[in-house]
Amino acid sequence: MTNKSHIKKIIVGATCFIIIATGSGIAGQQTSYAATTSAVTQNSVATASATSAQKKDAVIAFSKKLMGKVKYKFGVNNTKKLWFDCSSFTKYVFASQGISLKWGSVAQSKQGVYVAKKNLQKGDLVFFSVSTPGKINHVGIYIGNGQFIQNTIGGSVNGVIISDLSKYSSRYITARRVG
Predict the structure, then answer these.
(1) Which domains does the chain carry?
(2) Sheet-wide strand order for 83-84
(3) What is the pLDDT of residues 122-134, one digit of tens each?
């Protein structure tokens, strides 16, 4: 028997052993293997959640750093000059953490998964109607404690601000969780 065929039989034998093991003592090994596999899977899910939470915190921190630096310009996505509309701002901020968003508040409102207002978490996108009642035309990022960060214009404001969600309750439409 050559080394290659011997190794192949050992591998096949080991695979069959794992699949069909049913004897005394072996069942305990299977249970141990299953428990180990389950623990690894649970640990991976916990790590993915931690990573997701870390990304959301980084999204919020990055968006706050842009306060006073970004200018609002409708229909603009200029990363060099930091001129953005609301959705190109969210697109830019999420891209900083490797999360890809489309440009446009309506397009972003179709990404990720729906989130009920009562279940908002940091980093969720929140969508509003600011001109045509009932139609999405503005987006911001929920930052927790009933607040969201947005790129907007109005009055003396031109750029990134933090706002109370309660002041936008009549214009609030939906939320999405992305990334």
Answers:
(1) 3-46 (no CATH), 54-177 (3.90.1720.10)
(2) 71-72, 83-84, 77-78
(3) 999 999 999 889 9
